[in-house]
Structures are given as C-alpha cells and as structure tokens.
Amino acid sequence: MIWQVPKIWENGEVWIIGGGSSIIQQFEIPQKVSQKVLEMKASIDIYSPFLSKIHDKHVIGVNAAYLIGDWIDIIFFGDKGFYLSHARGLAGHSAMKVSCNPYLNNINWVKFVQRDNTKVRGLTDNPKKVSWNYNSGAAAINLAVHLGAKKIVLLGFDMKLQNNNQHWHNVYNTSNKKRFHLPFERHLRGFPNIAKDAEKLGVEILNASPDSAITVFKKVNVKDLV
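and the corresponding structure tokens:
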C-alpha cells in the first residue's frame, strides 16, 4: 500500500544522518572510538552519546544510521540489498521505517512511497512519492519536505572520501572495493535540482559537512547549530 506522507513536522527543523565520515569530526568523536567502529570491534551505538545534542531533534537516519540509537525518529532506505541484509534489525527498531523501493511495497512494517519517475531529480510535490535523485540520502530530503520541514540539516553528506573513509562505519564492507566503483559522481547529480526546488518552497538546507563535495547548500559546523 502506498503511503501518503503526513505533515507531522510542519514548519519544523529536521536533521538527516547520511553515511559520510565527516560526522566523526563534526561531533568530535575520538579517533580511538571511531577506529573501533571502523574495524568492527565496537558496535555503532557507541557513537550515540557523542550525538546527544541532536537526540531531541527530528531525525531521519539513512540506511545504517538506524544502528546508532533508538532516538532516531524515521529510518529511510531505498536499496533492496540493504533491506535484505538488515531486515531483522530494522524490524526491531522503534523508529518509523520508510522506503521508496518497490520490493518493500507489501512489507507491513514499512511505509512505502513510490519513486516519482516523472521527476527523478529535485523535490516532487506529490506526498505519495519522492524524487530518487540517485541515492537514499537525497531522496530522504524529499521525505523531510513532505513531513513539513522548513529547515533541514544534512549530516554526513560528504560525497567524497574523508581520511580515505567513505563512511563513518564499515557496515557495507566497502574498504576492499576499487575506487572506481565509488558512486559519488552519480549521487551528486540531483543536488542542484534539490537546491532550486527547496528555494522555491522556502525550505532552508544546511550542509554540516564543511568539506563536502556538494556545493549548492550553505556549509556549516554542527557546533554553530546546537
């Protein structure tokens, strides 16, 4: 069943946690802590206390961000493979689960929204759809807008390697993949359209990854926001 996204956060501020490793620096997570996570010697929820300043915010966690803690409000994922690998953990999490992958249409604990194939890039205004923009993080921005957000803060939207790390975790085990398989060029395509549509809607989008390859949003530091 297709879900029509309600404006439960109307005129609100929404934080979206992506996968980029800049989160480690932005929340001043000690290297010895992050290294344990990256080496899979510690569970990801070890990060949670360092993110305490956003525990009371409206938060959408993209993909593996659900592993940080039960204070995340919504988990968004668009990839079938991610769901198949994490179905049990996702089902047991207290957050609302939302996906735009057709495979999830009949999973009763997942809210399903369609991908708007008539508007692949940018922000669709159809509350039963999201613009895919070639990656789950960008599509989550569209979800936040449907939920009523007027200010969106992006975390871990690096779209580049940081200290030779693609993510703040090693859940996807990407360390052995050849660099030419990195998806950044494709992932970056939709953000200029998102920025234009957000401006028309009066939605402010801030990028809390100062060294991000995304150049169309104002770049900020987390410490200046919380």
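(Above: one complete record from the training split.) The chain has one domain: 12-224.
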